[in-house]
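Instructor's aside before we start: the two examples that follow are unrelated to each other. I chose them only because their records fit on one page, so don't look for a connection. First example below.
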Amino acid sequence: MAKAQTTALVDPAWLAARLDDPKVKVIEIAVEKLDSYNVGHVPGAQAWIWKDKLWDERMREFPSAKDFATLCRTAGIGNDTTVVFYGENVEFGYYGWWVFRYLGHNDVRMLDGGKKRWVAEGRALSTAVPTVAPARYKTAARRRERMRAKLPQVRRSLEKKGVVILDNRSDLEFTGQSNNLPGKPDFGAERYGRIPGAKQLHFVDLLNPDETLKSPAEIAKLARARGASPDKQIICYCRRSHRAALVLFALTELCGYKNVRSYDGSWTEWGTAVGVPIEK
């Protein structure tokens, strides 16, 4: 296994020592509302509802380079700013990390264990909404296409050796009994099932009870048990790619895998697309 690239994963002590650093910005990724953020957040953290900030408002795509630069400027993020994400739900923070890295920002970190670990270690939360001074952001960032898979590429991969597709959803979703997380409204795709040949690696299996990531050795063992070794091309997917982003982070940043992509269309696209095969 390659050396873990642990600089992308920071603990609460690391972040607490840098909360007053203007070159560090903290973002809490909310799911639909800011209720959790308003109750209490890491001091200085801004709140973003994931779709509002990380999707283009006109289509199911990520912000253009111009719009991304505007987003960063407004949030006080410059090209050399260290951006630290955590999620209202843990996987949504990893989605923020993935989108920022994909869109070309260089220094993006994850707060290991998020707000749950922050509180467990006795650190105070804040209800104050930070005042942010606009920053300069150059729009020349290039997308990291090696981090992303689209439907045609995934479909071509069904016929290729050396490609492992990892389904990061729950048992009910993987076996075709539901199209959403357990306990959630059952919607999101026209069909039930999984991508043919996909191997299940539920994202929660990579987490400790406190929502920190397991060790690189433990994560690599889980991946290898599904045939996902470092020499393979790996495509991760879930329902809307939040859970897949967590698995991609763990494999690349902790385990040193070099060829891992997230299929962000995930099951909401694959399960509805015309002429695309599924299995149960």
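Example two begins here.
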Amino acid sequence: MAASTPALAALQRAGVDFITHSYELVESDLSYGAAVAATLGVDHGRLFKTLVAECDNKPVVAIVPVRSHLSLKALANAAASKKAHMADPVAVERWTGYVVGGISPLAQKRPMPVFLDESAVGFQTIYVSAGLRGLQVELDPVDLIRMLECRLAALAD
């Protein structure tokens, strides 16, 4: 088994079935997310990135496919907010307890509302960061929704 992280420990405590996937990226012309998907041999739609934004100055988590961009307007609408903007990376690391590039939506230090792109429910399993660069966790999106009380929304551009 891969290195233990707070995210993996939370999954184990919850009794959720999951598979870890570790990888090393080589330099590529692909974007980071596309390179990870190619390295893992996974459809880009199943690999999700965890982003932290602020809606009306309150932090929220947005989980979207790596092949897409987060629509801040859609996130603001989903959060019933007037405006959304990406959070400062230093604050994000403090709030989540993870390093940018390895932020897991699971077991973050500060509880925040979580919004998941609705495309996730179209797959039996999806991949999200396990809390370290180079480590992904594959799990049923229903388990992720249940654990994090995710709100589903069309978030991707």
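Residues 108 and 156 are 23 Å apart (CA to CA).
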